[in-house]
Write a structure and sequence with these properties.
It contains eleven helices and five strands, in the order αααββαβαββαααααα. It is of the alpha/beta class and 230 residues long.
Length: 230
């Protein structure tokens, strides 16, 4: 059984698009995605697995999926979602200090701190974007990918209410540099400034271009080898 489990994990790694190095780093998570039950997670239906039999988890994921569909007009992704109610569980399936972690176009893990609608929507937004981009998923700029996920999840930590004419929580001139920054620098030492900056830039981008239809056009541009500019 263990051998078969790792064969399945290898297939999952291929689907996720992880190279050999990435597979080694993410090996515990990949194994958990391949066989959630082997890691103490029970199926709650709808591709949702958790270490606690809580129907609220499935409702949370379904609501997050509905928010993705409402933004795009439809949802094309169908991710497997692994949720942990304890830190021991999350570490056991390969998690770290993050609230949630999306894997390619196929799966995500949520920690106890990330098991909420906002974080679930944020991570599912990444998966939806990558699903729509297909083999061009690595062309999307990190500032755009992260900023759009913040907007779709309506994360109040990084955005003013949607009723505000300007949703930026910092001056646009202070946010704009994120476009040319390495994401590791923008989020150095656990700082969330990169999210504040990217959320501001993308919210302005969407407002200036008419919202979701502009995102669909940008996805087409990326698939055609063109770039996204602020």
């Amino acid at each position: 059984m263990p051998k078969r489990r790792w064969i399945v994990a290898g297939v999952v790694a291929g689907l996720l698009g992880l190279g050999i190095g990435g597979t080694a780093v993410a090996a515990p998570a990949i194994a958990a995605m391949a066989c959630p039950q082997c890691h103490g997670l029970s199926g709650l239906g709808g591709g949702v697995y958790a270490d606690r039999d809580d129907p609220g988890y499935r409702l949370m994921v379904e609501t997050a999926q509905q928010r993705i569909a409402a933004f795009y007009g439809e949802r094309t992704s169908d991710a497997r979602v692994l949720i942990c109610a304890t830190e021991d569980c999350y570490r056991g399936i390969g998690g770290g200090g993050e609230k949630g972690r999306a894997f390619g176009r196929w799966a995500l893990m949520l920690s106890p701190a990330g098991a909420n609608e906002t974080i679930a929507t944020h991570e599912l937004a990444h998966i939806e974007m990558h699903k729509r981009l297909g083999s061009s998923y690595d062309r999307v700029p990190r500032w755009f990918d992260e900023g759009l996920a913040v907007v779709i999840s309506d994360d109040a930590r990084y955005l003013r209410p949607a009723s505000e004419p300007d949703r930026c929580r910092l001056p646009y001139a202070d946010a704009a540099p994120v476009v040319d920054m390495d994401w590791a620098v923008a989020t150095k030492d656990g700082s969330d400034r990169g999210y504040l900056q990217s959320a501001c830039v993308v919210s302005r981008w969407l407002n200036d271009r008419g919202g979701a239809p502009a995102v669909l056009a940008a996805i087409g541009d990326l698939r055609a080898g063109r770039s996204v500019t602020p």
